[in-house]
UniProtKB/TrEMBL annotation:
GO biological process annotation, one example: fat cell differentiation
Name used for this protein in its record: Nucleolar complex protein 3 homolog
Entries under Pfam families matching the protein: CBF, NOC3p
Gene name tied to this protein: NOC3L
InterPro entries documented for this protein: ARM-type_fold (IPR016024), CCAAT-binding_factor (IPR005612), Noc3_N (IPR011501), Nucleolar_cplx-assoc_3 (IPR016903)
Primary localization class, coarse: nucleus
Domain CCAAT-binding factor span(s) in chain numbering: 537-690
Location of this chain's protein in the cell: Nucleus, Nucleolus
Keyword annotations: Coiled coil, Nucleus
GO annotations of cellular component type: mitochondrion; nuclear speck; nucleolus
SUPFAM superfamilies given in the database record: ARM repeat
Length: 783
């Protein structure tokens, strides 16, 4: 019979790669066990052969030591020693003869007998391909993977060697890239940037032309927010941010998209409806990812974190963060109705308190715009809640600008608790059953048309929306007052106090009457403490009189302490620089004297008019105009104050200008000699007001003011002639300037006639020393 041919072949390298690890481990264990059993069997045979050789060499001495190799001594075990101790006569003659024949073969005797491997072990010994593959060091794929073709492996003495080659046509010859100069690098960067800009413009145009079919392009454009080219990454990301912002502003619907319910998802709809649903779902998804990317950019900059790729430096992250905040602010204002608007509010409000002035101003301006365009009040309520929570969580350690945002709210009225008698029941329409029972057929017809008309009128009045608006405004104002009262109670020396007092002054007429007494006590204690700045004390006075001028009219409260404080502190106004304190002073005078005319005594009115006229000599022209306009209104409101235009004294006593009590300074015994000094003022409007007041502030005649001056309040005129940022050191009475060039070099408020007037005064060289000039004015006024 023919011997069967062994069909078992060595597996290929590709097949070995596909073999599971468990099978390979099992094969390896089996192979090791087999090798161990072969080695054990071989050792037994070696012991027998060594014994036979010793027996043969003991009988016949053959000089084979020359050919023997030196090998280490072999230590016999106890069993081997016992075997060596056996007598030679126990072996047969045939065995001895065989041993003698074997001893003649030098190749057998000279071989290293201490080796535990058989002669053919090297031929059979093959290192495992899998073991070699596992021992190979791994390399990160920094370069694109090459396409390889696996060939037949080669077998040699060391084992199986896999063979591969690169796929034809894909092999690229690596050429050393030339070093580019700076100009070439700039040209290359400019070219890349132009390509990116064209790509962004093409994607944006395609999305805007057909939004419903361009969600994939929108996704592609959003993916460019992660641009990895370090040469153009910063500019490309900024452009993509702004482009996506404009795209979302254009393609976003004017309603909020809600997620579909499970029932709606399984309901069959028309093809157009399904297409619209897919578009809305994709739009909301991409908008969400876009906002998350903007948020992450701002957070990375705030935490000074760099991405692992290091594509953008930490310094460039600030510019990215500013653009991200700008986009968030724009979306906050433009899309208040769309999804995730509350999330944008939560992101923007903490940035109002940011250390970066640019980011803080951007966020504050965005919230101001949002307040101005919010007609109903729901969005404003959400912002106020977040601001209140921020102030409380920071333990009232925030910038004053955060609280000043409340001043821009459009809250003019709130819900007032009504008595049961005042509440009128809503009109009910007759039911159809009542109509059939009580009315004829023709009457029912007329009644139906009448009710239809009434319903349309109710819808036009929007009574329901008005009630909702009042409810939202009331809740908003409650949160604001809660924040204000907490600050007044806990942190009275905080820099937030001016903002709190200004806010109380604005919304004082909306405060509940129950809080008036406690609030006035707190305001007076703040003024009396002396810890407030001048501006803060003015806000306290203004707040107190706003409270008393509204619902506080019914309260029996004496505000004389507030009158005395304002009268005493008028001369603390800065006379050499334009500031906003004058606006608050003019507002206080209007609320304290003009609007409370029935509760102001003549002595008090005379004292304030005299002190304001003295103050008009020292301040800048815009402040002088505002003060003189206020004096004009007071002289018209209190006609008996014209006695200040006469030199004769009224009653007993002398005028005491240094006294701080307006009721006791005897202002009726002085005259407004300051008006004669103001007639020679270098500002023409001040001259006109001085002439007008000397003539008794007439409403008609040659000394009457023009309509543009007479119909405006002191605050409005002060703002009109405001010289923001300018500082002067005028002489006493501000008649003639000391420095010629200071006033003639392009001041915005000076017209050509005024410049000629000043030049005339300068040519006359009528510059006097302050003391002499003051005496001169006093003499001329008394004459």
């Amino acid at each position: 019979m023919r011997a069967r041919k062994n069909k078992k072949r060595v597996p290929s390298f590709r097949k070995l790669l596909k073999t599971s690890k468990v099978k390979l481990d099992n094969k390896l264990k089996n192979k090791q066990f087999k090798q161990q059993s072969i080695a054990k069997k071989y050792r037994k045979e070696q012991r027998k052969l060594r014994q036979a050789v010793k027996d043969v060499t003991a009988r016949t001495s053959v000089p084979l030591e020359e050919n023997k190799k030196k090998h280490p001594t072999y230590h016999l075990t106890e069993r081997e020693e016992e075997e060596e101790a056996l007598p030679l006569d126990m072996m047969d003659e045939d065995d001895l003869k065989l041993m003698e024949d074997l001893a003649q073969k030098a190749s057998f005797v000279t071989r290293d007998l201490s080796s535990i491997e058989p002669v053919h072990a090297k031929k059979r010994k093959q290192e495992s391909v899998i073991d070699r593959y596992e021992k190979m060091p791994r390399r990160m794929q920094t370069e694109p993977e090459k396409e390889l073709i696996h060939l037949l492996p080669i077998k040699d003495k060391s084992g199986i060697i896999p063979q591969t080659m690169e796929k034809p046509g894909k092999k690229q010859v690596e050429e050393p890239q030339p070093v580019l100069t700076t100009d070439e690098l700039l040209i290359q960067r400019r070219r890349k940037l132009q390509e990116k800009k064209r790509h962004i413009a093409a994607l944006a145009a395609a999305i805007l032309s057909d939004p419903e079919n361009s969600i994939k392009k929108l996704k592609e454009l959003r993916a460019m927010l992660m641009e990895q080219d370090p040469n153009v990454a910063v500019i490309v990301r900024k452009l993509v941010m702004v482009s996506l912002m404009e795209i979302f502003k254009d393609i976003t619907p004017s309603y909020k998209i809600r997620p579909l319910t499970e029932a709606e998802k399984h309901t069959k709809v028309r093809k157009e409806t399904q297409k619209l649903r897919e578009f809305e779902e994709g739009l909301v998804s991409q908008y969400k990812f876009y906002l998350e990317n903007l948020e992450q950019t701002v957070k990375d900059w705030k935490q000074r974190k760099l991405k692992k790729s290091n594509v953008i430096s930490l310094k460039a992250y600030k510019g990215l963060a500013e653009i991200a905040v700008k986009c968030l602010c724009e979306l906050l204002v433009v899309l208040p109705h769309f999804n995730f608007h509350n999330n944008i509010i939560v992101l923007i409000v903490p940035l109002m308190n940011d250390t970066s002035k640019l980011i803080s101003e951007m966020c504050c301006e965005a919230v101001k715009k949002l307040f101005k365009q919010d007609k109903l009040g729901s969005v404003s309520l959400g912002v106020v809640k977040v601001i209140s929570g921020l102030v409380k969580s920071r333990n009232y350690d925030v910038r004053p600008e955060v609280l000043k945002i409340f001043l821009h709210l459009r809250i003019k009225e709130v819900e007032v608790k009504k008595d049961a008698e005042d509440i009128t029941a809503k009109k009910k329409f007759m039911s159809s059953k009542e109509k059939r029972k009580n009315l004829s057929r023709m009457q029912r017809k007329w009644k139906k048309a009448e009710e239809k008309l009434e319903r349309e009128l109710l819808e036009a009045e929007a009574s329901e929306s008005k009630e909702k608006k009042l409810k939202l405004h009331t809740e908003t104002l409650n949160i604001i007052f809660l924040t204000y009262f907490r600050i007044l109670k806990k942190v009275q020396k905080s820099p937030l106090l001016p903002a709190v007092l200004e806010g109380l002054a604005k919304f004082a007429h909306l405060i509940n009457v129950e809080f008036f007494d406690d609030l006035l006590v707190v305001l007076h204690s703040l003024i009396a403490s002396g810890d407030l700045s001048y501006r803060e004390s003015l806000h306290c006075v203004l707040t107190a009189f706003h409270i008393l001028s509204g619902q506080g009219d019914v309260l029996n409260i004496d505000p004389s302490k507030f009158y005395s404080h304002l009268y005493r502190t008028l001369f603390r106004l800065h006379a050499g620089a334009t500031n906003d304190d004058m606006v608050i002073v003019l507002q206080c005078l209007d609320v304290m004297l003009t609007k409370r005319r029935k509760k102001v005594s003549q002595q008090r009115a005379l004292a304030f008019i005299k002190r304001l006229s003295t103050l008009a000599l020292h301040v800048l022209p815009n402040s002088s105009v505002g003060i003189l306009a206020t004096n004009r209104i007071l002289m018209q409101t209190f006609p008996k104050t014209d006695l200040l235009l006469d030199n004769e004294a009224q009653g007993s006593g002398l005028y005491l200008p240094e006294l701080d009590e307006p009721e006791c300074c005897n202002a009726q015994n002085t005259a407004l000699w300051e008006l004669h000094a103001l007639r020679r003022h270098y500002h023409p409007t001040v001259q006109k007001f001085a002439d007008h007041l000397i003539a008794g502030a007439p409403a008609e005649g040659s000394e009457a003011l023009r309509p543009d001056l007479s119909r405006r309040s002191g605050t409005e005129l002060f703002e009109t002639y405001n010289m923001k940022g300018m500082t002067f050191n005028p002489p006493v009475a501000s008649v003639i300037p000391r420095k010629k060039d200071k006033f003639l070099q392009g001041d915005s408020f000076l017209n050509e006639d005024l410049k000629e007037l000043i030049q005339t005064h300068l040519n006359e060289a009528a510059v006097h020393r302050p003391l002499d000039f003051a005496e001169h004015l006093k003499e001329s006024s008394l004459s």
